[in-house]
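Re: that chain you flagged

S.,

Sorry for the slow reply, it's been a week of failed gels. I finally had a moment to sit down with the sequence you sent. For the record, here it is as I used it:
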Amino acid sequence: MTFPLPPPMRRALDLAAEAAAGGDVPVGAVVTLGDAIIAECRNAMRASNDPTAHAEIEAIRAAAAKLGTSRLDDCTLWVTLEPCAMCAAAIGLARFKALRFGAEDPKGGGVVHGARIFAQPTCHHRPDVLGGIGGEESAELLRNFFAERR
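Prediction finished late last night. Pasting the structure tokens below so you have them in one place:
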């Protein structure tokens, strides 16, 4: 049985498609507070010539600016791909309540793969993590993006 995607993940997937259309790796991120979307961004590394302009980092910055605080304790981050170690560390530092992601990233992920940031004893905050939400659609966007470039 297929269930409709939660609206924040649907929006993140739309942002990922926009990133791909602009030449960036298709990753989108949305920050919610309750049911409200308070920030949304897509990968912008190529567009901005900034290697740290991952969708998650951009969304964290936008949400923190909107709320006027670096603590996003009551927020949930929705992202189409398992965050890398850099993004996972930033998610912990921002103290998100929850992280929801689409496709796993065995090569570059930092949550359930690779560095497993939230499992490290040096990690001071661990959000509630749930992956696989919209994972197939996210993985398909990524496969298509990289197939076109090979």
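What I noticed first: The chain has a mean pLDDT of 96.

Talk soon,
D.
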